[in-house]
Structure formats: structure tokens, C-alpha cells
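Changelog note: in this version the structure field was regenerated for every chain. One regenerated record is shown below for reference.
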Amino acid sequence: MRRLLLLFAVSLSSPLWAASPRADIVVFATHPDDESLGCGGILAQAVAQGKTAKVVLLTSGDGFPDMASVLTKKPNDKLVPADFMVLTRFRQNQTRQAVIALGLKPEDLIVLGYPDSGLERIYLSESAVPFRQQYTQKSETYALIQKDYHSATHGAPAPYTRAAVLADLVEILETLQPKQIYVTDAADTHADHRTSFWFVRDAAKAVKYQGEFYTYLVHGGPEWPWPIGITPEQPLQAHTVKGVTVPGGVSWPPPRRVPLTREQADKKLLAIRAHSSHLTQPSMLAEREYLESFVKSEEVFWLPKLD
């Protein structure tokens, strides 16, 4: 009851409350771009069908020195916390532009503001002492293009602790009551991505979630997604790289394959390009091609066990 009272006491100016307090679909993105890579088509479909959708951004991608170096034109070893604030603002704005490209409204983006490259350590720690992110030197949630979720709902940021992350996610699920949840898969090779699954799974169990729970894969191994390149007329395919099946750690064919129209694939490409606007140098073209390779004739999802 105390949690519910806190939720209803929140300011109506908060982005979370600017639209419907419930959502048909909630996509949890670990970093800026994950929502577009894994679920851009799902989000575009939701808008076309008149459904409500929210994107919950767990981190702002503020643990990415190479990108901070590109933006500030400074070598990695000369970067200081202020440079990572430049990175944070840039990546949060990219995410906002991406969700707009998919047809969502700016208020459909919820920024939690937890640390990039720190989620796994937070999850595995029972300590009440907040984790401190090495690049930003932050130990509590923040956002730069809007208020972070905890500040918007409680008037102050949350510490970088396991209990705080889980509490925010539980509140969001209780408030939005989504019919469908999407989050990165436990088999994803990026530590932050699989940790996002653990956190969202635990929150779903805590609220006794009864809706549909799907996972998507961003880092599935070498040469994933396949085939390489923008191929909106082709489905995603598993293949073998040096004797190893890619994607790894998941069943193939996936249990859910969602066809995308060409229009939806085009919107997904626009959203991905909102995240790749900085990848203009010849040395960065391979990264751009990797991101754009998620544009296919479908999106694929898995059905994890929550127990």
C-alpha cells in the first residue's frame, strides 16, 4: 500500500505520467539502441495497431570510452567524468529520436539511469553500499534530457544497489501493468544484457506477473545477426562459424517469429540510424553495418522460464 501511495503522489509532469498510466507493451533496453535493434519492429507494430508502448532504458550507455573519445575528440586516457556526461546526453537524445522514428512519443521513454558496465556487479552484490561507476564517478541514478525515473517519482535519485534497481522495476511493472514484456535474453553474451534479464525476471516474479514475457538477442556470437547487411526481404538465420552454431545459447528456430512489413522494417532502420549518426568515419563503417544488419523481414523472440 505504501508503494502505491508513493506512485499516485508523483507529479503529473513526470514523463511516465504524461500519457496513459498503463501500457500494452514494455520494452526494457539495457543500453541506448537495444530497443531498436531487438524490438524496433514490435514497437512500430504497436503504434500501427493503436497499442500503448513504453521503452524503459536501464542505463544511458555511459560506460563506453571509445564513443566518448569520438564525441569529445580526446584520447581515451585523457577522458574525465565530464566527457562521459557529454556521452550520456548524446546517447539519451539518440534514444529519444529513435523512439520518435518508431512512432512513439518522447514521454514513452523512461530513463532509469543505472550504470553502464556495472549492472552485473550490482546484481551480484548484496551490499547496501552503492556501486560507483569508474567513468562517471556516479553512485546514484541520473538523466540529462529528462528526470531519471526515481527522481521523477520519489524526488531524489536512487543509489546504485541491487535493491534499488529491483524496487524501480517492480514499481514500473505494478504501475504500467503491461500485457507483454520484452528484455534481452539470459544467453546474450554482454554482461549488462543478461543481467537486465535477471533483474526484469526477478521483478516479474515479485509482482506475480501473468502476461507474456519475451526475450530478444543482441549479442548472439560472431556474425550475429545473419545475414550481414540491410536485408528487409530476408529472415534472420542461424549459421555456423568455425564449427560453432550462431546464435548460441538459444533454441533455433526461435519459438516466436514476428513478420515485419516493409514499412515497419524501414521505420526500424530509421530508428537504428538515429543511434548510428556518429558512425561516419571509414573505421566505423563495420559497426554501422552490424547495427543495420538487424533490419530483416522479422524479429525473433524466446520464451524464458520465470521460475
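Spot check on this record: The two ends are 26 Å apart (CA to CA). The beta strands are 25-29, 53-59, 109-114, 180-184, 212-216, 239-241, 244-246, 256-259, 298-301.
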